[in-house]
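Sample log: Triacylglycerol lipase.
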Amino acid sequence: MPDVTFRGRRRTVPRPSGGPEEVQVRIPRVLAVVSAALAAVTAALPAGTARADSIPPQNDAFYQPPNPLPAGRPGDVIRSRTASYPPLLGVSSTQVLYRSVNATGQAVAVSGTVLVPRTPWLGGGSRPLVSYGVGTRGLGDECAPSYTLSRGLDYEQAFINGLLLRGWAVAVTDMEGLGTPGIHTYTVGQSEGRAVLDMARAAERLPSSGLGATTPVGLQGYSQGGGSVGWAAQLAPTYAPELRIKGVSAGGVPADLVAVGKFLDGSAGMGLAFLSAVGFDTAYPELKLENYLNDAGRKLLADNKDVCLASVDGVGAIIGTAFRHITDFTTTNPLNSPTWLARFAENKLGGTKPPMPVFQAHAAADELVPLAQADTLHRTWCDAGTNLTWRTYPLAEHALGLTQAFPDMTAFLNDRFQGRPVTGNC
């Protein structure tokens, strides 16, 4: 089927002759609300049996970093412990607290999970490792993947299991501020990309993992995770040149947060734009989000600093902000502020060429992360000479995009681990 792109909210379908045909696409608002709510409700469905004795991260001393942090390098393991992994019996699960670097260059502690199949690797060479970037969770510590994975309650657990069943090790970062103290720096690529790379380093340096300097590494993620691994791909040559990254699979990438924010304004996913503003305000304190908020915005912020989308409160937050506008919650729109725009520009993907092969996927009818800005990233990376394979999924919105793209994303990494050559379709 031909690729489909969007310009704003219009679908462009190439004719067989090559000429574009513009078709207006209007998804009924009620369907968009149902889609967003359904995604959150689905995230709350159990993927296994929860541990009865699990302790939420905010009450668990493991997640509290020492003050000051011990000396070391990014990716060094500060502490680790064995964890439960209910869905698969033959997997060793270890929670780690490791060193990373935030968006302003300061050392921080980040938590995560290292998952390794117990069966020997028979695929030749060293066992591959995938550093996996998860999608949107929310802002609260109980959203941390290390917590939800250990309880068998993570909405991406089935996808992670698919990687483990190939015999690959999987390292899943919680990212800055999920699990550990402070607010999560949601969608701040400069932080998330480093967390993904340092998670791979931590997995390799964890003695019990059986991994090491010769480990072939892949990066994979969708939605927020797609942005995280996209940033990891760009940062890797200078930040983590020792990692043997063979390929990157990034889907549903929010590459340009200004474009995403404008697209979400007044849409079913307006709440995600607000979470992004909170994430940036946390990463860059000079932004002073509260100075831009009206009374409704201050109440929204107070009510949702600890929200997890996979919860009753999360579904309520999505529905409560659906089809609202940024101006409903602000006295001044941050998207019009030079100070905010400068920080968004620092976190816009496309400024550096990833040196490894990249598979970039996107749902053509994505109602949360617009296709147009992802297509711009694909063209920008291609123009820079990236070995990039681009694919869109014409019959998918955001959630279906993950399920449809996952097999292709995984197969792409498998081919890279097998040493098969690839020529992109730029």
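Observation: The first strand starts at residue 5 and ends at 7.
Observation: DSSP finds twelve helices and twelve strands in the chain.
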